[in-house]
Amino acid sequence: MIRVAILGTGGIASACHMPALAAEGHRAEVVAAMDVDAGRVKAFCAEHGIPGAYTDLGEMLSIERPDLVHVCTPPFAHARQVVECLRAGAWVWCEKPLCLSLAEHDLITAAERGTFAAVVFQHRFGSGARHLRRLTESGELGRPMVALCVTAWYRDHTYYAVPWRGTWETEGGGPTLGHGIHQMDLMLSVLGDWEEIRAMARRVDRPVETEDVSLASVRFENGAMASVLNSVLSPREESYLRFDYAEATVELRHLYGYRNANWTSTPPDRWNPPDDVPSSHAAQLSALLDAYERGERPPLSGAEGRQTLEFVTGLYASAFTGKPVRRSELTLDNPFYHRLDGGQTL
Q1: What pTM, to 2 d.p., does this model score?
Q2: Which domain of life is it from (predicted)?
Q3: Are residues 93 and 141 in the same domain?
Q4: Strand pairing of 213-220 and 233-245?
Q5: Nearest in space to 167 (alpha carbons), one of 212, 232, 200
Q6: pLDDT tens-digit profile of 105-164?
Q7: Which residue segment(s) compose the domain that 30 sits in?
């Protein structure tokens, strides 16, 4: 059995991680949970039948020696905690964002020594996304040319009453980093690396330091062009992706997760996924545990996990500077490599 520990026992741990682990109960066992709130971690362990409850990460790692740690803490804690887990000999599966800068991401990758850190991007693992990548790679739909990537969500003022939300230091960014990142990751998994981005980001209404809306125009290395919107100001919520190929259009409409029924194509006979797997934590966890059992680097770790954070960095860099940004410019001497706000004020 793969020994699993949960780090952070808030809503995402109960709503997404524990059901995914229950589906893998034949090969994964949750042996411990850790949270700085003693009452919350004890209640969490009692609810889920977990034997070990801890309030100190180092103590938990030393005593339990988990094989895999699910990191479900606020974003500002991720990099430090992920590195500590890797150095203790555990693999890590971390909620998005894995960290708050490319500099932190590279420190995490440097800490991998036969252990790996993967980020939660579950939308890549639904059958619809897998099928679209196969069609794209085979050329069956023709050349990809145009894409739309829309995350139109709604978060009211009370959402930002949580102390760590809405600041560059603790949340790391606004909807570009914390919400739209899932749709952008799915777009990137289909279209590949980008070459140039031109963006705007603004704080229009919410009581935050970060943006509450961003827009970008993107040119990809394969020549495709895309338009991207990330918003928490949209009362009618929707997640929407559209891919226009030379011979077909494929669209996805959903909110926080999809099945095959959420996908359509024009003409309709170009869309026939062989199975129906929903996008979910369970789908990604299954692939991660497969990699663990084979001793291979898991999906969405290393360079693959860095790809979407690099895109977010480019978007912020363009929005703050008011200039187009090329992916090749995001080097160590670039201030946005070290902070997503580049040390500037929005």
Answers
A1: 0.96
A2: Bacteria
A3: no
A4: unpaired
A5: 212
A6: 999 999 999 999 999 999 999 999 999 999 999 999 999 999 999 999 999 999 999 999
A7: 2-121
